[in-house]
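Q: How would the structure tokens look for this protein?
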Amino acid sequence: MDARPWGRRSLALGTVVVAGLGYAQYRRRRGSAASDSRYITERHASAFLVRRRIDGDRLESVREAVVERCADPDDPQSLLGLEGATTASLFLDAGDDPELIWYVEVPRSVMVDWKDPESRVDAAFPLEHDAIATGEARVDRELLVHAVNPNRPRSATGTDDGPLVVSGAELENGVDVDLVQLHLKPGLAERLADRFAGLSRRVAAGEIDLGPIERWSGEMLEAENMYTESIVLERRPEGYVLCGYMETEAMGGVYDAYYDTWNPVARLSELVFGRVLEEPRQILEYPLGTGLEVLAHAVDPDRPRKPQEC
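A: Here is the predicted structure in token form.
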């Protein structure tokens, strides 16, 4: 019983829906069912990842630049990067090919007139430094899942009157923020991901709703105190990768809540991981070892918590 619950729940959501295991889990939208949800999903907001390669000999200089960039705790725009963005985090991957990874959330109402959202977000990368390569190799990315807890805080540390932007060190006694990257096995697992991506596009367009799947997943968000959860599919030359972003009160609480429930989505998810992931131990063992360092985290003070606020 060492599993990381976010991945089990989210990947199972895709697997169950794509496999078409029944009318109750996948149906055409009828009336206002989708719009009546109390949870923000990919219908209401989108989430993006932007990567920048950096000089591995200058990591400390980049860290210092991020701290300086986030020096004003009342100015989240320094990390949000573009007007209308509501949540953002910056991660450092200090591995063999070091890079910065920027996660940013934007309500769909803000993006109505954007012709090329990916390029617009890419151009808004929040840090300039001569150790950072300009632009990135084009990777085919697609948002699969975005979910928001209607009780998520409107500060970067989780307190009612806390700062709006903090460096990674300042998160030690605040919220937990993480990004996990899971490689899918080639073949069937990748085809399932493609089918789920098509389904997600239809959900975002309001063509279908997910019935009780959405309700069960929302219940898990609240039970785990998971504030924001997004999954982005990256189709890389070497294979498919699921990138899961999590903002939560405490990862330990997520773990405890997952094993203390008979929620159908949580329980069904235990059936799929050994079959679809290249390295199931990444999420099947506790604690989660992502190898990433959180450099900064920021929220808009009015970031949406319910669909009508988007």
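The CA atoms of residues 183 and 241 lie 4 Å apart.

The longest strand covers residues 226-236.

Upvote if useful.
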